[in-house]
Amino acid sequence: PVLGTVFTSLSEILAYMRSVSQKWFCLHTTTTPIKDLSGNDIPADNYVFIKNANNQTFYITQESAEGGIKYKAVTTDSGEYGFQRQREAIWSNVITIAQKSDGEDQFNRIIAASKSGSGKNQDKILVVDQQASEGNNTLVIGGGSSVFRSATVIDFATNQDANATGGEKRWRIDSSGNLRPYTDNTYSIGYASWRPAQVYSATGSISTSDRTHKQDETILSDAEKRVARKLLGYICRFRFRDAVSSKGNAARWHVGVIAQDVQKVFSEEGLDAFDYGILCRDEYPAEYEVVYGTRMELGPDGLLTMEEYDTGERKLVREAGEIMSVRNDELHYFMLASLSGQ
Hints:
The protein is built from 5 helices and 18 strands. By secondary structure, the chain is α+β, with helices and mostly antiparallel strands.
């Protein structure tokens, strides 16, 4: 404005504001480049608003149709600007992200910048893609759109302490689509009290049998062979109680052994069944869930909104108990040894 030259950077604008103690400055970017305090070009069609606090500290807001960014810039002794930059935080009970609507279907997306930082869609990462149609409500995590980049890996992390920072990565979906634990031989699928109903597999499961992972190899003792032979007489058919409860007489029959019988037969031969991986007993504690209530709260906009809150009450979901089980593959090998005369 003084010399008739065009500003090419925010640093030049701040220097001008300091020189004349100007309190406010705003601009709308075009295709003509203007650099931010990092030296990067501010994309076209951005609105930039600068507030001069005391000729030393400046607050800068940069907004576009896709979001906003805020700076706090402080003048250093060298005349340059040290700054902090952060995205605006969103505080809300409910966040609705409407990306596109064709009049019938709804498309909602959360998008993040990639390492390149480019403003082009093909250089951004699609984090969450939610599509609502008449027949389905689909939630896609990590990509799936031809317009954006996708995640190469997805990690799942948790922390056992709700008040602690950090956390541990537990599971990963890799770029080939394989689900694996983040640390080898550490995590289980399910608990004794929370069991998957069924596992469907095309080729079965694979267990480690490499000799380099084992030790103390011995043949079965005479007492163990007697237990194995006796257990053959305890094979029975049975039905599961929960299946009978839900299906009645339509519940199917199963063939196997009863864990308590396995324990008894080992005991008869002076052996502790729990010294063997054949028999398992898992105890589980009582489990409770939070009881939530609803109440009307007056928001900062003067409007009443309904919110959920923790009443402090806890509802018993599952009583403490224990459950016994067998590893059928080991039990089968054990019984086969008695048949082979080992």
